[in-house]
Amino acid sequence: MSKSTNPWVSFIALLFATFVTIEAAAFQAPVLPSVTAHFNIPVNLAALILISYFIAVAVFAPMMGRLGDQFGRRRMVVIGLVVFGISEFMAAWAPNFGIFLVARFLQGLGVACIFPAVFSYVNRLFAEEQRGMALGVMMFIMTLGAATGGLLGGILIDAFGWPSVYIISGILALLGLVPLLVWVPESKGEPATGKFDSLGAVMLFITIAALLSLPTWAANFGRESWITWAVVVVGVISLILLWRHSGRQAAPILDVSLLKDRRFAVPSAIYWIQMLMNSGIVYSLAFFINNRPGGSASQFGMVTLALFGCTMLASPIAGKLIDRFEPKLISILSLLGSLLAMLYFVQMDTTVPLAMVLIMAGFIGVMLAANSTALMKLALGAVPPHKSGAGSGLFSMLRDLGLPTGSSFALAIFGLSSALHTRRVVEETAERMELSESLAEELLAAAGTKSAELSADLTSALLATGNEIDQVLEHINVASLGGAITNVGYLMLVMLTVALALTPWLAKRKDIQAVSG
After folding, report:
1. pLDDT in tens, 499-510
2. DSSP code of 503?
3. Cβ(44)–Cβ(164) under 8 Å?
4. Distance from C-alpha of 470 to C-alpha of 346, rounded to nearest angstrom
5. Which residue in 71, 181, 286, 297 is a FRET match for 227, CA 20 to 30 A apart?
């Protein structure tokens, strides 16, 4: 790295590439209901849109981190932006759901080239006492993309349709090549000894694909299905074999020595839980806000703006704080704050004012900024210099595993809870109105598809009881949404409790300085 290069100029140029991919990821929340309806797929299968992307990110991130050390980190970011941009256009014009999923996979591959390299540049460009501020700025840029992406996505979808968000992302990705090539010098690390771990890469792919898709299989085939349990068995066996295999390799695709180091493993695990929780909140709110009476994609865009906007504004402050105070303490306090927010989340129903949802989302965003910045400094600071590529790639993989896991679990629980509550309310309604079993089943089907096109017999039966058709369907929808969002909230509370239980094992500043020093 040239000493004459201003590290902040280079870093901001790198962060433009990060901004583009984060903004594109934020587009997925408001676009998900529209894409689901366009390709006529059930809500439970909507998670495949996210899983196909994150499988590629998680599997290829460790690999691309090592390749960046060997062939150049800037080169990997350039490749990533080109692949990402092309795949965004491919998604916008996908003729069917299968092609759309392929495009999403390629988007993930592009991101896998970018993030490990950017994480590696943090330690290369800045001294230990400056990394907190650098990571705070990084969180600012990332959440700026998330905040503007959610709001802009909702506006674009309402005005021009869902393909427009992918076209915008593709254009921004290609524009991001300009500052990258002008202001970022090439940087290489120490190439790993030994041949490429191709068998480890295959096992990593099987493990991540199985575990990330598990909630979707369980939601669609049931917990008792042999398909669900086959996925569990394949994922667990592959993970065990991968762990044992990696310990015997000179250059493993999964560096287990880092995962055995408490200083790296614990903050990475808590960060994974944090990403899982926030992803679950965002994607469950996407369906809750869009489908409740008076809801819209633009309203959900305001929610994401509040969450990620507050994260954006708080990130530089949090970065400055963790350069002065113990990151471990800041992490604990932020998790306790998130716990308070979740206690409000579980009490929400469809009558909650949008302003209260915005306040809650903003508070969660501040806690996210403080905790994420502290955990990133602890985890990346624990990576020895000679393992920079492996460590940044592994951290990027763990980070990105939290997003699809949270969305998959949240969507699975939201979908199942909504269906269960819909059936319960329909049965109560049918009993109260003395509907026959066949008419009750028709009402259940109509409520599940949010359709008011009922048969003449059911329409007559409802009108005979003095009930408007739209009012009956809205009553059922309101009850199902309220029950679904509450169940998702309880899942988030469990996650936060686990994260807090891990905090006693977080390293202190002096332990991290011993590694980087």
Report:
1. 999 999 998 877
2. G
3. no
4. 27
5. 286
* Cα dist from 246 to 84, 198, 238, 412, whole Å: 29, 11, 12, 32
Enter the tokens of residue 314: 């708080």
CA neighbours closer than 13 Å in the CB half-sphere of residue 54: 31
Residue 386 is given by DSSP the state: G
Domain boundaries, the chain: 7-197+249-419+480-516, 198-248, 420-479
H-only helix segments in 72-96: 73-92
Identify the burial level of 182 via C-beta atoms within 10 angstroms of its C-beta, where 0-12 means exposed, 13-18 middle and 19 or more buried.
Answer: exposed
Nearest to residue 125, comparing CAs of 138, 140, 143?
A: 138
Give residue 26's Cα distance to chain centre: 9
Q: Give the separation between CA 413 and CA 467, rounded to whole angstroms.
A: 31
| Nearest to 54, CA basis, from 8, 6, 107 | 107
Distance from C-alpha of 205 to C-alpha of 200, rounded to nearest angstrom:
9
Tens digits of residue pLDDT in 336-363:
999 999 999 998 888 889 999 999 999 9
Q: What is the pTM of this model?
A: 0.73
Extended strands (E) in 304-396? none
Distances (CA, A) of 437 to 434, 440, 444, 461: 9, 5, 11, 13
Q: Could you say which architecture CATH assigns to the domain 7-197+249-419+480-516?
A: Up-down Bundle (1.20)
